[in-house]
């Protein structure tokens, strides 16, 4: 394997882990917002989502 291929592999793995981290953060924020809406909707007179 050439040095260029090893460098590209390392950069690709780094970017894949960064992308997975961002995706997990987005999913967690979506869950937080859904939970907040679930709890606050009855107090604000809004319908529950389910």
TrEMBL record:
<keyword id="KW-1133">Transmembrane helix</keyword>
<protein>
    <recommendedName>
        <fullName>DUF4175 domain-containing protein</fullName>
    </recommendedName>
</protein>
<keyword id="KW-0812">Transmembrane</keyword>
<keyword id="KW-0472">Membrane</keyword>
<feature type="transmembrane region" description="Helical">
    <location>
        <begin position="28"/>
        <end position="46"/>
    </location>
</feature>
């Amino acid at each position: 394997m050439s040095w260029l291929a090893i460098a590209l592999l390392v950069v690709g793995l780094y970017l894949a882990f960064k992308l997975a981290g961002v995706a997990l953060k987005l999913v967690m924020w979506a869950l937080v917002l859904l939970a907040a809406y679930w709890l606050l909707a009855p107090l604000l007179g809004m319908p529950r989502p389910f």
